[in-house]
């Protein structure tokens, strides 16, 4: 099945991972070998970029920007509309490949491609709504307004857990804004990036889009450093760990560039004594085990009212006993594998730390073996009762480990929710309006996303996505996130016959 998909997009042998949007360049960097965590089988080899190829790609992007920025925004939007149509045609094939290369469930693979389609639709409408403002001038015969212009090259560094969707959040908005893009996908999921590049190249060729508007740069950490340090790239959007984001932000900031950072999450759901516990259960379990706990919005912590703690944790234990773990392309299974064996080792280290720091497991974890688990990447989702201040709880572990914590008052619960370095997503389960509003108030959740009676994962593209503190402060996708990809210009026009100065300053000659 996967071989048929790869043949459909002319991917065979060792394929170049470097493209200027019209031509594939022979890479001189290390070969990236992609294997599936589903069954351990080899998918394809991708030749990564060397420094010379990066410079060639950056030069092509810079040249393309000079032309692309002058295309009318609605015309750029029409090209993005066609990308959305192409993604609709390839949704099944690309969704299966996402599931197989990354390891998420097939439904989540399809959902990721749907996110790409949705952001295309959003961007098409946006292409006719890049609004500025008008202001009244204090000087007679003057008019003031502000407008937004394309920024230039957008460097996109994406992570393995959403191998294509997060790239599209950035690229589609950047393109309608008049920017060009250089994409460095995760070295763990390079093949899905090749397929996306093929799809976009076909649409761009049909519309005579200049070469260099959509560039691909497969590579490892070094390729990301080239992007972060290059003054030709005014905006770098990076998704990944807080450690990686701090390095990118430091490098970009040192040259006074802009960075858009979407980093780690340590997301909590508060379970009130006045919650609908059955409904809360669904959101908590999906949030904790969906994508095998490898979403930045995965639910890591449940902060549960003391008087419903035993009842709700028993519901959780019963639900976990019903989870089906296995091949994610089998839609009967709930949980697939971790991305690789390094992730498995981090999961096991986290379990050891939970025990060492005094945690108590309600559902034990462990690595699964035997038929169907030959890749060595399948682990058992687990639940541990802990204290919020434990060092391991304060850190994000990209795995299906759910921590449960007791609270007595809502004020205490909100304080616990906020008392971690990260600030991405949060939720409260309650039927009490006062509790819900307190959670959403300025004194409530300090996260970029705060939900009531839904879980922490599953954001829609209409709202700006991102978080605070060690999550980086970036905003992608909907709302006014498009402003990240443009530069603001304030204009004052004098249509009078004199030249008065602002603030009433007199400067006679």
Automatic annotation (TrEMBL):
Molecular-function GO terms, alphabetical: aldehyde dehydrogenase (NAD+) activity
Keyword vocabulary terms for this entry: NAD, Oxidoreductase
Stored InterPro entries: Ald_DH/histidinol_DH, Ald_DH_C, Ald_DH_CS_GLU, Ald_DH_N, Aldehyde_DH_dom, ALDH7A1-like
Oxidoreductase listed as a keyword: yes
Domain of life: Bacteria
Quaternary structure (record): Homotetramer.
Entry's family note: Belongs to the aldehyde dehydrogenase family.
Organism: Chitinophaga japonensis (Flexibacter japonensis)
EC numbers, comma separated: 1.2.1.3
Protein name in the entry: aldehyde dehydrogenase (NAD(+))
Domain Aldehyde dehydrogenase: 27-490
Catalytic residues identified in the record: 262
Short name of any one Pfam family annotated for the protein: Aldedh
